[in-house]
Amino acid sequence: MNRRPLLRSLVLLALLPLAALAATPEPALTEGTDYEVIEGGKPFAPVKGKVEVVEVFGYTCPHCAHFQPKVSVWARKNAKTVNFIPMAAPFGGSWQPYAQAYYAAQVLGVANQSHDAMFQALHVDGTLPLRNASPGEIAPFYQRYGVDPAKFQATYDGPEVARRIDSASQFIRRSGVEGTPTLVINGKYRVIGHDLDDVLRIADQLVARERDGKTR
């Protein structure tokens, strides 16, 4: 008896569940559960050929600190098709000083390299105050990136940071963002999701929808 056809059949049968699993599509998105449509929404800073994803975050927000490692990997993986924009939320109170610090770091050209370290300093090392931080307390953090403290404080209080704070505030208001972290896709969709991984799953599908030119 030739056992080879039988063995080949058994191997193929064993692989069928794996093939079926690999072919299982992502569950369809539901408006109101997975995302909200932003009526009249538009991108913050559109780039031709890319889908914009804005992450509204706060440095003092613990959920944003947990999200940062995940979303940074996601942004790098999707860099060819996504224009990823971190946006510090100037919600007032303890949020405001670090929002201003983020935009000052942008102006000074050190925002990208200092971003992860700021979360580390606030939520792991405890080397920066979570509440009532002054620019004088924050300035030494940026000194390690070559920023003179006096220049940091002047930039922090300067007109360009004020302009960026205002632009961010307008975008956040018109996008209906009330908490952090929140992803906004192409200015059209505000992601909901039931956990941080789910937020990225939904973002993947909405980015694909925008990239492929599908309607909602």
Plain-language structure description:
This protein is of the alpha+beta class and 216 residues long. It has a single domain, classed as Glutaredoxin, CATH 3.40.30. Strand 4 and strand 5 form a beta hairpin. Helix 3 runs parallel beside helix 5 and helix 5 packs across helix 6. The protein is globular.
Number of strands: 5
Stretches where pLDDT is under 50 for at least 5 consecutive residues are 3-16, 18-23
Distance separating the two termini: 58 Å
Look up the CATH topology: Glutaredoxin
DSSP summary: helix tally: 8
Give me the CATH architecture, please. Answer: 3-Layer(aba) Sandwich
Number of domains: 1
- Average of the residue pLDDT scores: 90
Whole-number radius of gyration? Answer: 22 Å
Q: How would you spell out the order of helices and strands?
A: HEEHEHHHHHEEH
Q: Helical amount among residues, as a percent range?
A: 40-55%
Q: Give the name of the CATH superfamily.
A: Glutaredoxin
Q: Which secondary-structure class do the elements indicate?
A: alpha+beta
- Based on Cα principal axes, name the global outline: globular
The biggest beta sheet is recorded as: 5 strands, mixed
| Quaternary assembly | single chain
Order of strands across the main sheet:
1-5-4-2-3
Approximately what portion of the residues adopt beta-strand conformation?
A: 5-15%
Per CATH, the class reads Alpha Beta
